[in-house]
What does this fold into?
Amino acid sequence: MSLCLDVFAVELGPLHDAIGSRDQDLLRRVSYRSAGQWTEEDDYFAEEIAAGAPTSRDATLAVINGGPFTEGYGTQYGSAFRDICGTMFADFVLGNEYFSGFRTGWLVDVGKGLEQLGITTPKLDDLVFSGMPRALPDSEGIGYGEWTNAACRAGLAQWQASTPRQREALHPEVLAAVENCVAWMSAAAEITDQFPDEEYGVAAFLL
It folds into this structure.
Protein backbone atom coordinates (compact mmCIF):
# COMPACT_ATOMS: atom_id res chain seq x y z
CA MET A 1 0.00 0.00 0.00
CA SER A 2 1.39 3.38 -1.03
CA LEU A 3 1.04 6.19 1.51
CA CYS A 4 1.75 9.91 1.53
CA LEU A 5 2.42 12.34 4.36
CA ASP A 6 1.25 15.92 3.78
CA VAL A 7 3.15 18.22 6.14
CA PHE A 8 2.55 21.85 7.12
CA ALA A 9 4.13 24.41 9.43
CA VAL A 10 1.13 25.71 11.37
CA GLU A 11 0.01 27.77 14.32
CA LEU A 12 -1.57 24.93 16.25
CA GLY A 13 -3.82 27.18 18.35
CA PRO A 14 -5.57 28.91 15.44
CA LEU A 15 -5.79 25.62 13.55
CA HIS A 16 -7.62 23.98 16.45
CA ASP A 17 -9.74 27.09 16.96
CA ALA A 18 -11.00 26.80 13.37
CA ILE A 19 -13.03 23.78 14.49
CA GLY A 20 -16.36 25.14 15.65
CA SER A 21 -15.39 28.71 14.78
CA ARG A 22 -18.39 29.20 12.47
CA ASP A 23 -16.05 31.33 10.36
CA GLN A 24 -17.94 31.85 7.10
CA ASP A 25 -15.02 33.65 5.50
CA LEU A 26 -12.87 30.58 6.14
CA LEU A 27 -15.56 28.38 4.60
CA ARG A 28 -15.58 30.56 1.49
CA ARG A 29 -11.79 30.42 1.23
CA VAL A 30 -11.71 26.64 1.59
CA SER A 31 -14.57 26.26 -0.88
CA TYR A 32 -12.80 28.42 -3.47
CA ARG A 33 -9.47 26.64 -3.05
CA SER A 34 -10.88 23.11 -3.00
CA ALA A 35 -13.74 23.34 -5.51
CA GLY A 36 -12.14 21.17 -8.19
CA GLN A 37 -10.91 18.60 -5.70
CA TRP A 38 -14.33 18.43 -4.02
CA THR A 39 -16.02 17.70 -7.36
CA GLU A 40 -13.68 14.78 -7.99
CA GLU A 41 -14.07 13.44 -4.44
CA ASP A 42 -17.86 13.69 -4.49
CA ASP A 43 -17.99 11.89 -7.84
CA TYR A 44 -15.75 9.14 -6.46
CA PHE A 45 -17.87 8.73 -3.30
CA ALA A 46 -21.22 9.17 -5.05
CA GLU A 47 -22.61 5.86 -3.75
CA GLU A 48 -21.55 6.62 -0.16
CA ILE A 49 -23.05 10.11 -0.40
CA ALA A 50 -26.31 8.62 -1.67
CA ALA A 51 -26.26 6.34 1.38
CA GLY A 52 -25.83 9.24 3.81
CA ALA A 53 -22.19 10.31 3.74
CA PRO A 54 -21.63 14.09 3.78
CA THR A 55 -20.45 15.82 0.63
CA SER A 56 -17.03 17.47 0.82
CA ARG A 57 -18.63 20.86 1.38
CA ASP A 58 -21.04 19.56 4.00
CA ALA A 59 -18.18 17.87 5.86
CA THR A 60 -16.19 21.11 5.83
CA LEU A 61 -19.21 23.07 7.01
CA ALA A 62 -19.69 20.62 9.88
CA VAL A 63 -16.05 20.95 10.97
CA ILE A 64 -16.17 24.75 10.88
CA ASN A 65 -19.51 24.76 12.73
CA GLY A 66 -18.36 22.15 15.25
CA GLY A 67 -20.98 19.64 14.11
CA PRO A 68 -23.30 17.94 13.80
CA PHE A 69 -21.23 14.96 12.64
CA THR A 70 -22.80 11.92 11.02
CA GLU A 71 -21.55 8.76 12.71
CA GLY A 72 -19.35 6.49 10.63
CA TYR A 73 -17.87 9.15 8.36
CA GLY A 74 -14.82 10.29 10.29
CA THR A 75 -12.65 10.05 7.19
CA GLN A 76 -14.75 12.69 5.44
CA TYR A 77 -14.40 15.06 8.39
CA GLY A 78 -10.67 14.34 8.59
CA SER A 79 -10.34 15.20 4.91
CA ALA A 80 -12.25 18.42 5.52
CA PHE A 81 -9.90 19.32 8.37
CA ARG A 82 -6.97 18.71 6.04
CA ASP A 83 -8.53 21.09 3.47
CA ILE A 84 -8.98 23.70 6.20
CA CYS A 85 -5.36 23.33 7.28
CA GLY A 86 -4.17 23.50 3.69
CA THR A 87 -6.12 26.72 3.15
CA MET A 88 -5.09 28.43 6.37
CA PHE A 89 -1.41 27.56 5.92
CA ALA A 90 -1.12 27.34 2.15
CA ASP A 91 2.14 29.31 2.27
CA PHE A 92 3.73 26.86 4.68
CA VAL A 93 3.54 23.50 2.92
CA LEU A 94 6.68 21.56 3.83
CA GLY A 95 8.66 19.25 1.57
CA ASN A 96 7.80 15.56 1.85
CA GLU A 97 10.34 14.18 -0.62
CA TYR A 98 10.95 11.04 1.41
CA PHE A 99 7.38 10.61 2.60
CA SER A 100 5.44 10.45 -0.64
CA GLY A 101 4.53 7.05 -2.06
CA PHE A 102 5.97 4.95 0.78
CA ARG A 103 5.11 1.70 2.56
CA THR A 104 4.00 1.55 6.20
CA GLY A 105 7.28 -0.06 7.27
CA TRP A 106 9.15 3.01 6.09
CA LEU A 107 7.85 4.99 9.06
CA VAL A 108 9.29 2.34 11.39
CA ASP A 109 12.66 2.53 9.62
CA VAL A 110 12.83 6.32 9.83
CA GLY A 111 11.62 6.31 13.43
CA LYS A 112 14.43 3.94 14.36
CA GLY A 113 16.87 6.17 12.49
CA LEU A 114 15.79 9.18 14.52
CA GLU A 115 16.21 7.22 17.75
CA GLN A 116 19.67 6.00 16.73
CA LEU A 117 20.71 9.64 16.47
CA GLY A 118 19.24 10.41 19.87
CA ILE A 119 16.27 12.32 18.45
CA THR A 120 13.54 11.21 20.84
CA THR A 121 11.61 14.47 21.09
CA PRO A 122 9.67 14.72 18.87
CA LYS A 123 8.79 11.18 17.76
CA LEU A 124 7.70 10.39 14.22
CA ASP A 125 4.76 8.34 15.55
CA ASP A 126 3.42 11.47 17.26
CA LEU A 127 3.28 13.20 13.89
CA VAL A 128 1.38 10.37 12.24
CA PHE A 129 -0.71 8.42 14.71
CA SER A 130 -1.83 10.87 17.39
CA GLY A 131 -5.33 11.14 15.92
CA MET A 132 -7.54 14.06 15.00
CA PRO A 133 -8.16 16.86 17.52
CA ARG A 134 -10.68 15.77 20.16
CA ALA A 135 -13.39 18.01 18.73
CA LEU A 136 -13.51 15.82 15.60
CA PRO A 137 -14.70 12.24 15.12
CA ASP A 138 -12.04 9.53 14.84
CA SER A 139 -10.84 8.97 11.28
CA GLU A 140 -9.78 5.53 10.10
CA GLY A 141 -8.86 6.70 6.61
CA ILE A 142 -6.61 9.66 7.43
CA GLY A 143 -3.88 9.71 10.06
CA TYR A 144 -2.99 12.94 11.81
CA GLY A 145 -0.42 14.23 14.26
CA GLU A 146 1.39 17.32 15.50
CA TRP A 147 4.74 18.51 16.79
CA THR A 148 4.75 21.57 19.04
CA ASN A 149 7.30 24.33 18.62
CA ALA A 150 9.01 23.24 21.83
CA ALA A 151 9.25 19.65 20.59
CA CYS A 152 10.73 20.84 17.29
CA ARG A 153 13.39 22.89 19.06
CA ALA A 154 14.24 19.93 21.31
CA GLY A 155 14.60 17.73 18.24
CA LEU A 156 16.89 20.24 16.56
CA ALA A 157 19.13 20.31 19.63
CA GLN A 158 19.29 16.51 19.60
CA TRP A 159 20.10 16.49 15.88
CA GLN A 160 22.89 19.00 16.41
CA ALA A 161 24.27 16.84 19.22
CA SER A 162 24.51 13.78 16.96
CA THR A 163 27.89 13.03 15.44
CA PRO A 164 28.90 12.58 11.79
CA ARG A 165 29.81 8.99 12.63
CA GLN A 166 26.31 8.31 13.96
CA ARG A 167 24.76 9.80 10.85
CA GLU A 168 27.02 7.84 8.50
CA ALA A 169 25.96 4.63 10.24
CA LEU A 170 22.40 5.06 8.94
CA HIS A 171 21.28 3.78 5.55
CA PRO A 172 21.59 6.74 3.14
CA GLU A 173 17.86 6.84 2.38
CA VAL A 174 16.96 6.68 6.06
CA LEU A 175 19.41 9.50 6.78
CA ALA A 176 17.86 11.56 3.98
CA ALA A 177 14.40 10.99 5.47
CA VAL A 178 15.68 11.96 8.91
CA GLU A 179 17.05 15.15 7.39
CA ASN A 180 13.60 15.72 5.85
CA CYS A 181 12.13 15.53 9.38
CA VAL A 182 14.80 17.89 10.69
CA ALA A 183 13.85 20.36 7.95
CA TRP A 184 10.28 20.35 9.29
CA MET A 185 11.54 21.10 12.78
CA SER A 186 13.75 23.87 11.43
CA ALA A 187 10.87 25.43 9.50
CA ALA A 188 8.70 25.63 12.63
CA ALA A 189 11.53 27.21 14.62
CA GLU A 190 12.58 29.64 11.89
CA ILE A 191 9.05 30.87 11.10
CA THR A 192 8.44 31.46 14.81
CA ASP A 193 11.72 33.36 15.07
CA GLN A 194 10.61 35.48 12.12
CA PHE A 195 7.16 36.13 13.62
CA PRO A 196 7.69 36.05 17.41
CA ASP A 197 4.01 36.67 18.15
CA GLU A 198 3.07 33.49 16.26
CA GLU A 199 4.20 30.10 17.58
CA TYR A 200 4.50 27.53 14.81
CA GLY A 201 4.60 23.78 15.09
CA VAL A 202 4.14 21.01 12.53
CA ALA A 203 0.94 19.24 11.48
CA ALA A 204 0.83 16.21 9.20
CA PHE A 205 -1.84 14.15 7.48
CA LEU A 206 -1.23 10.53 6.52
CA LEU A 207 -3.15 9.75 3.33
